[in-house]
Amino acid sequence: MPQFGFAFDPLKCAGCHSCAIACKAEMNTPIGVRYRRVVYRESGTYSGTGPGAMRREVTSVACFHCARPACVNACPTGALSKEADLGVVLVDGSRCVGCRRCAAACPYGAHQFNRETRRMEKCNACWHRIVDTSGATPVLCVGVRPACVAACPARALRFAVRATWGAGTAPTGFYDRTATGPSVDFE
Amino acid sequence: MARKNDSVVSWLRDGITRRRFIQIGGTLAAGAATVSRIPFSRAAGPSVPDPATGAMVRRTGCMMCNAGCGIQVRVLDGVVIKVDGNPFCAQANEYDTGAAATGADVTPADLPNADTDPGSTCPRGQAGLMTLYDPLRLTRPLKRTGARGSGQWQAISWEQAIREIAWGGALPDGSFAGLASIRDVAGRFTAADTAYASEAKAGDPSNYGLKSNHLVMMVGRDQTSAATGRFMTAFGSVNRIDHTSICNSSYKVAGYITFCQDNKDKGTYLLKPDFDGANYVVLFGTNPLEANVPVNTFIRKIGAFKRAGGRLVVIDPRFSNTAAKADWWIGGIRPGTDGALALGVCRWLIDNGRHATDYLRRSHRGAPNPAGSTGWTDATYLVHERLRRCLTAQDAGLDHFVARLTTAVAKTATASSTTPLTVQLDPTDAGGAPLDLSRWPSSGNVRIGSELFYYSSKNDAARTLSVTARKVKGTKNYDHAVGADVMIPYVIAIGGALRGYHEATAATGLADLEYRGTIGADSVKSAFALLRDSLDTVANYAAASGVSATDIARLGTELTATGTRACVDLYRGPIQHTNGTYSARAIHLINLLLDRVDRRGGFALGKRYRPGTPAHPGAPSPTGVRIDRAASKYEGVPATPTRPWYPLAYTGVQQEVFPSIKIGYPYPIKALITFTSNPAYTMPYTHSVIDGLLDRRAVPLHVAVDIFMSETSELADYVLPDVTFYEKWAANVMTGYATVHTAGGTIRQPVVGNVDPVTRAFSPVLPGTNSMDDILIALGKELGLPGYGANGMGAGKHLHQAWQFYNEMYKSGDFGLTNGLEDPAAAPLVMGGRRKNPAAVYDASGNFINDDAKYSNIATIYAEWISAYRHSYVPGEYFNGLPIYEPPRRDARGNPVTDPAGLDLTLISYKTVQHVQSRSTSNRWLLEVMPENGVWIHPSDAASRGVADGDLIRLRSVRYALLGRAQLTEGIQPGCIAIPHSFGRWASGFTKAWMVDGVPQPHDPAIGAGIAHNPLVRPDPALGDVCLTDPIGGSADFFSTRVAVERA
Known about the structure:
The complex is a heterodimer of chains A (about 190) and B (about 1050).
Chain A: E1 3-8, H1 18-27, E2 37-43, E3 55-61, H2 70-74, E4 80-82, E5 89-91, H3 101-105, E6 112-114, E7 119-121, H4 127-130, E8 131-132, E9 139-140, H5 147-151, E10 157-162, H6 177-180, E11 184-186
Parallel strand pairs in A: 1-11
Antiparallel strand pairs in A: 1-10, 2-3, 4-5, 6-7, 8-9
Chain B: H1 18-36, E1 56-61, E2 70-76, E3 79-85, H2 123-126, H3 129-132, E4 142-144, E5 152-155, H4 158-167, E6 169-171, E7 174-176, H5 179-182, E8 215-219, H6 228-235, E9 240-242, H7 249-258, E10 272-273, E11 280-284, H8 295-307, E12 311-315, E13 328-330, H9 338-351, H10 357-360, E14 376-377, E15 382-384, E16 389-390, E17 402-404, E18 409-410, E19 421-424, E20 444-448, E21 451-459, E22 464-470, E23 479-480, E24 485-487, E25 491-494, E26 497-500, E27 516-519, E28 522-526, H11 527-534, H12 538-545, H13 549-559, E29 566-570, H14 572-575, H15 580-593, E30 603-604, H16 657-663, E31 671-675, H17 679-682, H18 687-694, E32 702-706, E33 718-721, E34 744-746, E35 754-755, E36 762-763, H19 772-783, H20 802-811, H21 827-831, E37 833-835, E38 858-859, H22 864-867, E39 905-910, H23 924-929, E40 935-937, H24 939-943, E41 952-956, E42 961-968, E43 976-980, H25 988-991, E44 995-996, E45 999-1000, E46 1041-1047
Helix pairs in contact in B: 4-19, 6-19, 7-15, 9-12, 9-13, 9-15, 16-18
C-alpha cells in the first residue's frame, strides 16, 4: 500500500518554526490550533562533555498518518478515516462531535480542538494542494509540496509516498513507533 | 499624495477592534481555503492568474528583517492570502539551471513551476501578512492634543499634516517653526547659533556647515524607502542618521579597513563563509540560524554543510540554536574578549608555523604566486613606528620613487572613476635624476602630500598619472600645491634591501615577511613583524578570554589540519563592545593568516544588483558636521571636546544623537523626523532617548513615520502612518550575499494596493496611510525643494508620485529595465529581481571562479587609516593600526568601568528566530510560537539566589531595575544572564490605552509581555547619559552590563 509520510532530518532542522507558521497560513487555523509544531528538548549540562554535553534536539511534529492510527479506532462517530489511496488520515468535520477522544488516543499530539467550530482538526497532508481529485482516482501532483515542506529553509522536512516507513533513530522521548506505525523516517 | 480609491479592498478600517479582526481572519480563511484547493492538473500545470479563482502570484522583497529575501505572494481579490519564498531568489531557493547557463541571467522559463513550487522563508517571512493585516497598524495621520507621551491624539488630514509640518503650527504647549523656516542652504552656522563655536574646526562655527543641518532624520529600516537620502540632500542637511551603530557598525568599519581594495575609498565588509565549500567553520558571537542575515539562506546552507559532514564551532556564552548544531560549543568565552581568543589563535598559528607565508609575502598583484592566491597583503609593507604609518619611498630614501607635482591637486577638481584627474609630475625626481616613471607600478596607490590616491594608469613619456579615486577616508578636503611630493607609498624589504612594494618579481623573489630595522633613530618593521612583536602569549590570551590554552591550541590545530577548508566569521557578539573594531580585525586576521579569502570554503564576497539614481537637478550640497560627529575629526580649539567625536565611525553613532541634542552639541536642532526607527525601545540605555524626546526645548518638532504607535512614535508631535513593505517599491533590497555565490538583486514592488493608470498615484490597503516616499514627495513639493514636482528629475520627468521616482530609478542601474516599471511583464518585475545563474563556482585550484564572489585584492593587517587618528576624548591616545586586544568596558575617557559590589552577573541579549527588534512583536502568528520572553540563568546562579524556574526576578543594573521571569537553563555560561529582544514592550500602540479624538484605540497588554534588555544597559560613567561606545567603529555596547539578580 502506498503511504504518505514525512522524512525529517534532525541534523538539518534549525528549529525555526517556519513549517509551523506555513501550516498556520495555509490552513488559516485560529490562534492556539496548531497542526504542526516544533518541539525543543534540551539535555546535558553547561560543562558536560561527550554524552553529557549540552544538547538541544528539535523536531517538527504533525500528524504522522500512522499505519495503525489509534485515533481512528478511538473516534466514536467515524469522523476519522484512513484514506485508501495515500493512507492519509482525514477528519470529516460534519461527523465530528468534538469529544476529543482522538486527542487522548494520539501519542503525538496531532489532533487540535478548534474552539470556534467546537470540532477537531489536524494535518490533512495538504490534500487540497498535492492531490488532483479531478479524475476518477486521486493523483499526486508533480512539483507541489505540502506548505510545511515548501517553507522549510533547511530542507529538513520532506514528504514522500512509500511502502514502508519507520527508518532512522527517533528523537529522545518520541513515542514508541511500534504502537501506531507513524509514517515518518528520521534521517 | 496618493489619490484614494474607495474600491480598493480594505481589511482594516478606523476603530477596528481585535475581535473584529478575528472575524476578518475568518473571512480571510474562507478565501484561502478556496484558493488552496485549486485542483492542480498534472498535464497543464497551474496557470497564473488562475482562471478558477483569480489568485495571482506576485514577487517582491521581504522586509520582516533586513535580509530582503525574495518572496512570492498569493493574492486573491486584492488580499494577501499566503507568503512563500521566491524560487527565483538564490537566498530562498537552491537551484542550478545547468552549467551551460553559467553566468547567464535566470529567466522565468528556467523555473516553469515557480508559481506552485516556491522557495523557502524563515518564520518571520512566512508570518509577514499578519503584520500587513495587523489590527494595531496606524490608520490616519495623528497630531497630539496632550503633552508629549500623554497618549492623547486627534486625527488630522494629510493636507493639514503636511501643511503644518512645512509651515509651522500650534501644539498644546506652544507653537513650533515648520521645516520651511528651518531650511537654509545659503547660511552657515555662526557663533550666535551654537554654544560650542570654539569646538568647530579652527574655532570657526561655519565649519559646522549649512544651517539646514538643523533638521535631523533618524532612519531604521531605510531599505523600505530610497527617498530619504534625496529628501535630506534637497533639504540641505547632513543629518540623515541611520541605526547602524546599534547594529553592526564596528563590524563594517573593521571590514572597510581590512578589505579595502586599492582603488576604493571604502572597502567591503560583507564577506561571509562559503558554507558550500567549507568543512570547518568557526563562528565568533554570531547565531546565523536565528539572527544573522539572511537566516533563510544560512539555515539551508548550514543544514547542507552539517549533512555533508562539516564541523561547526560556535563561540558564544549562550547555547543558541546555532550552538546547538555545533560540534564544539565554546561557551566559556567571557563577553567582550573575543579579540583575545582570536589573537591567541593567531599567536598559536604563527608560533607553530601554520601561517600561509606565500600568501602573506605577496605584496602586490603581480608578485610571484606560489600558492595560487587571488589576492595579496600588506604583511611585508614596512611600518614607521613613530610616525604610525607605512614607510614611504621618501622615508626610505628611494628617490626615484618620489616626484613632485607640477599641477595642483585640489578638492575643487573632483576625481572619480568616471572623471579621472590627470596629475602632472616634474621631469626630475627627488634625487635630481630624470624621473623614470616606467619603474613605477602601472597602477596603484600613490601618496600626494599626506594623502593616498589611486591611479589607474600612467603615461611614462608624458609623466602623468591618471588618478581615479581618492582613498583616505576622513580627509574631506585636499589641496596639494605645485611642488608637493608625490611618492610610492609602500616599501618592502627583499633580502634586507628596501624596495618599492611592487618590485617583488620572479627574479627577486617574494618580500621579507619579518623585517626589523631602523631609519635614522626610528624603528621600522614589516607589518607582520610588528604584529608578531605585539602579540601576547597564548596563556595570557587564554586567561583574558576564559578559553583555555589547550582549547586555543585545539582550534589552531583543527583549523590547519590536512584537508581542512576552514573559515572564521563573526557578527554582533564580539563587536558591540568598546573594543569592537579591534576584535573584528583580530578575528579577520585568522582568515588572513590562513589565506582563506576567495578560497573554496573560505571567505567570500557577494554582489548586489542595484538600480540607478534619478537625476536631482538643483540639489544643494549638504556640508558640515553631523550631530553625532560621525566621520568627523575633532579639530577645535579646546584640547578635548565637550563630547567625543568619531572620525572613523563612517556609518554613524546613533546613540550620540539624543544626549547631543539635549545639550545642543555641537549645535541645537530644530526638527526631528524618525522613520521605521524606534530608538526609545531599541537603543541601549533607552533613558537618554526618552529624555531627549520628551524635551520640547531640545526637540522643538518631532514627526514620526511608522506603522505602529511605537515607544518612539508615542513621544512625537505628529505621527504619520506609513504603509507596510508589501505596499511599496524600494531599492537596494539586501540581496547578493556572499553565501549564495551569485550576483543578485531583489526588486521591492507592491503586491497589494492599486496604482492609478493615469496619475500613477498609489492606493494602499489602508486608505488613510501613505508610503514614506509619498510623504516625502508631498513635503518636498510643499516646501518647493529642488528635485520635486514638475520636472523634478529632469525635463519632462515629474516627481509627484512614488511610482515616478522608482520608475526613473529602475530605468538605469543593474536591472536592465529600460522601460522602468511601465512594462509589468518585463522579466525582472515578474521574477521580483535579477539573478545570475549560480552554476560553476570554483576553479581547479580551489579559488572562486566567479568574479561576483571574489575579493581578489589587498587584505590589510596594519591599517594606517586607523593609526592616523587620535581618540578625541583621551588626550594623547592614538588608535592602533594593528588588530590588538583591548579589554572591554572602557569608558569614553579610556578608563575601565567598575560597578558597585553585588552587580555580579553579565547581561547579554540576543534575537530569536521568531522576532526582529521591535516591528514583529504584535504579529499574532509569531506571538503564538513565542508569546513572551524570560531571563536565561544558569541553575547554579539561580540556586545561590534562591531562584527557581519561572520565578519573577528583579534585575538591577547600576541605575535601573526591571522584573522578568527566570528561565533556568544549562545553556548559559554561569555568571551570564541573557534576555531576548522584542519583548517587554511598553508602547501605547501595543499595550496601553491611548485615545484618538477621545476614542480608545486597540491595544492588548499581553503583547510583548516579558522584559526588555535595553533599559537595563548601563551608561558610560564618563558621560552619564549614553551607553558605552566603541570610539573607532561607533558600535554601542550591548553585552557588558553587570546586574544583580534577586527574587522579586
